[in-house]
Specification:
The structure holds two protein chains of two kinds. Chain A has seven helices and ten strands. The longest helix of chain A has 18 residues. Chain A is globular, with a radius of gyration of 17 Å. In chain A, α6 links the parallel β7 and β8. Chain B is of the alpha+beta class. Chain B is built from 14 helices and 14 strands. The longest helix of chain B has 37 residues. Chain B starts with a helix and ends with a helix. The chains are: A alpha/beta, B alpha+beta. At the A-B interface, α1, α2 and α3 of A face α1, α11 and α14 of B.
């Protein structure tokens, strides 16, 4: 069981990758609690297991040991279908390299996300694109947008279905300082106005400062909360 | 999700075009080969069944599909006319046919040697468009000898008078009064009949025999007319009776298409095999195309998974792309088949390519079904992608 108001909880989380008989442990007994409406940064150097932790918390990977609780539900034992459904309903992802679909426009990137989530297309997409300042670029394919604009489209796609949890993996890692600041401002706005719970993964102390709380990860272990 | 499938295909225009072309070629090959086989068989059987007769009699060793083998004697006609079934006559009239071969329009044609008086039964509802019915010669050998007069009003001296059908006339560029030399003997066109009669070329039976060096009154086929009102069972009874009493082969004319199809089963099987091989190659191509596309788009699939796309949606997305390719290829293939038919029939006017709706449905089914099958393995590969790994790769 999770405590009230806790949206995301990791209990003794471990992850070991196995390939060709070789075992690579990445996470070791990670304990973490993220409350509803909290903005948490998980900070650590490259290779410390931040992205793996995000993928496990975001139900993209199954942990080797331990449990993940999402919105009061124990996710252990969930099959692919159940995990996909919870991602659809409750989680939004933002990645370092944006990960937009390159063959369709910014609008269609959001529309596809809506369709996958079984939501009807309404004025929501326009409003979200407007909120990230890209209403006039809705018809552009990602290749015609600047990197800052692409990341703003990615943020818009992650929040268009009003998820409970936004997981952002090095969202400013590919951006210059001005664009980084704009994305962080955007996160703070979303967090403040919508009360969205945000978990931000970063190696940068400056970026981590945008969060309410910083969790340090080193060598696959939580060092300081 | 159709938007994404379409966008992906449009994004790789060359690959998409090649895949569509591969399916189109296979579908065209299927439709044209099957159409050629069916068209030829159906056209020949329709023409044979246009004769106003119900039973086809031939020597046991005569092949009614290839028109080769043993002969009959005209004197046997009297025996046939004497046959009785259920107290009444079994045979009303016998139309003997002596078959020869001549080359017209660069294609070997069976020449139907018939008695002028029987021609109306062969023409049926089809009329002579131009010219007139030929006359036979009392002394065919003399009539065919150049320089000797034919005072009997029969065939012009030295010529074999023939009636050709309209299609052959068009293909060979012949009209009434034209003389051609398809062999040693000059042949003169005396009439043109509407297309659809049993033979493309008709000649007087005696003259045709003489032209082929046959002096005896023989024939290759007897078209037998049964008395009016005979149903299929009675006609079969007549066939059985003829076989028992004359030891000749007798089959209902209505069954000619079945006989023809049976005789050409090896050819149709071969055509089916060639088409199947072409289709398998085409769908392997589609499989490789989709497989390559899936490998290239591991990240895109992972993005969809991060958005919450489940296995079913990823599977649908992969199959949808293959289906779009195959649907476009099938459509292009069908259009190309009609174009190919037009081109082939223009170049070879006597060829028949029959593209009919049932085969279009079959081609569509094969095209789309093959597309689904071709997408299954790539879809399986797509489902095995590790989304976290694909998304981590920068």
């Amino acid at each position: 069981m999770t405590r009230p108001n806790v949206l995301l909880q990791a209990d003794k989380l471990g992850k070991t990758f196995r390939s060709d008989g070789l075992e690579t442990p990445v996470l070791f007994e990670v304990d973490l609690e993220v409350r509803q409406g909290e903005f948490v940064a998980i900070m650590g150097p490259s290779g410390c297991g931040k992205s793996t932790l995000m993928h496990v918390l975001g139900l993209m990977l199954s942990p080797t040991s331990g449990r993940v609780w999402l919105d009061g539900e124990d996710t252990s034992g969930w099959g692919d279908g159940e995990r996909a459904r919870r991602r659809r309903e409750k989680i939004g992802f933002v990645f370092q390299r944006f990960n937009l679909l390159p063959t369709v426009s910014a609008y269609q990137n959001l529309a596809l996300a809506q369709r996958i989530r079984g939501q009807r297309l309404d004025g929501g997409i326009g409003r979200v694109l407007d909120a990230v300042g890209l209403a006039d670029r809705a018809g552009y394919k990602p290749g015609r947008l600047s990197v800052g604009q692409q990341q703003r489209v990615a943020v818009a796609r992650a929040i268009v279905h009003r998820p409970k949890l936004l997981l952002a993996d090095e969202p400013t890692g590919s951006l210059d300082s001005a664009n980084s600041q704009r994305i962080l401002d955007l996160f703070r706005d979303i967090h403040r106005t919508d009360g969205l719970t945000i978990v931000l993964i970063t190696h940068s102390p400056q970026v981590a400062q945008a969060a309410d709380r910083i969790v340090h990860l080193a060598d696959g272990r939580i060092r300081h909360v | 999700m159709l938007t994404l499938a379409l966008a992906n295909l449009m994004h790789h225009k060359v690959r998409t075009s090649l895949s569509v072309l591969a399916v189109a070629i296979a579908i065209t090959l299927l439709l044209v080969l099957v159409g050629l086989s069916n068209g030829t068989l159906h056209e020949v059987s329709r023409r044979m069944q246009s004769v106003q007769a119900q039973v086809l009699v031939s020597d046991k060793y005569f092949d009614v599909a290839s028109f080769s083998g043993g002969k009959l004697w005209e004197k046997e006609i009297a025996g046939l006319l004497a046959l009785r079934v259920e107290g009444g006559p079994a045979v009303a009239r016998v139309l003997p046919v002596f078959l020869g071969r001549m080359k017209f329009a660069d294609q070997s044609q069976n020449v139907f040697g018939v008695h002028p008086g029987d021609f109306a039964a062969f023409a049926g509802a089809r009329r002579l468009i131009s010219g007139e019915l030929f006359a036979d010669a009392a002394d065919p050998a003399q009539a065919l000898s150049a320089g000797e007069a034919d005072d009997a009003g029969g065939a012009p001296q030295g010529d074999l008078p023939v009636i050709i059908d309209q299609r052959l006339a068009r293909a060979a560029g012949l009209g009434v009064g034209d003389t051609v030399h398809p062999g040693a003997l000059p042949v003169r066109v005396v009439g043109v009949v509407e297309t659809g009669v049993a033979g493309r070329v008709f000649a007087p039976i005696n003259l045709l025999r003489a032209a082929n060096g046959v002096a005896a009154p023989t024939a290759h086929l007897f078209f037998v007319q049964t008395p009016a009102g005979f149903d299929a069972d009675r006609i079969q009874q007549v066939c059985d009776l003829i076989q028992q009493t004359t030891h000749r082969s007798a089959t209902p004319v209505a069954a000619y298409d079945r006989i023809l199809a049976g005789n050409f089963r090896t050819l149709t099987t071969f055509i089916g095999l060639v088409s199947a091989i072409a289709l398998v190659i085409c769908f392997l191509f589609i499989c490789v195309t989709i497989y390559t596309s899936v490998l290239e788009r591991a990240k895109e699939i992972a993005i969809l998974q991060s958005l919450g796309a489940g296995r079913r949606l990823i599977l649908r997305q992969t199959v949808q792309e293959a289906l779009l390719l195959c649907a476009a290829g099938t459509l292009v293939g069908i259009l190309a088949s009609y174009a190919a038919r037009g081109a082939i029939e223009a170049a070879y006017p006597l060829m028949n390519i029959e593209i009919n709706p049932p085969w279009l449905v079959v081609a569509g089914g094969i095209g789309l079904g093959g597309g689904v099958l071709a997408a299954l393995y790539p879809a399986y590969v797509a489902l095995r992608h590790d989304p976290a790994e694909a998304l981590s790769f920068e």
